[in-house]
Amino acid sequence: MALKRGIGLWATGALMALSACSNGGEPRLMNVRSASNGPDEFSIVPPKPLQLPTDLAALPTPTPGGANLSDATPNEDAIIALGGNPNAGPGDAGLLAYASRYGVTGNIRGILATEDLAFRTDNQGRILERLFNVNVYFRAYADESLDQHAELERWRAVGAGNPSAPPEKEQ
Question: Were 31 and a residue from 49, 63, 133, 148 both cysteine, which residue would form a disulfide, CB within 3.0 to 4.6 Å?
């Protein structure tokens, strides 16, 4: 009886170890899950403030399902924030030409996806970390991160100013 119990414990342990090795083929380094089924705070976009038109008689006829002046336009707002012209047509040709001045790799998304999958597979954590869904993202990308304080000091040493410096290090 004790032998059967021992074999059962070993079988359970082996099964748990094997289940920790497989996660559906897609390595996850950031194991963050929400316990609730609540709203997504990033999907809530506040509308633009209401404004009174200068001439109420010149208002266009309302169109059901049409755009509203107070509707959010995040793409246009981003183009304006980056110094572009949202009315320049489909794509800003000047910005596109400047960004691609050293050439463009046609399959860059596929190349990056393959390289990222290989990196995440090599750095997905130890067996117990995968078994207990431990977050290994920051450790995996530690060599890729920038020390913002050292970089700020480097730029200050050469005389470059920075109006938005990171907060001071805690002592």
Answer: 133
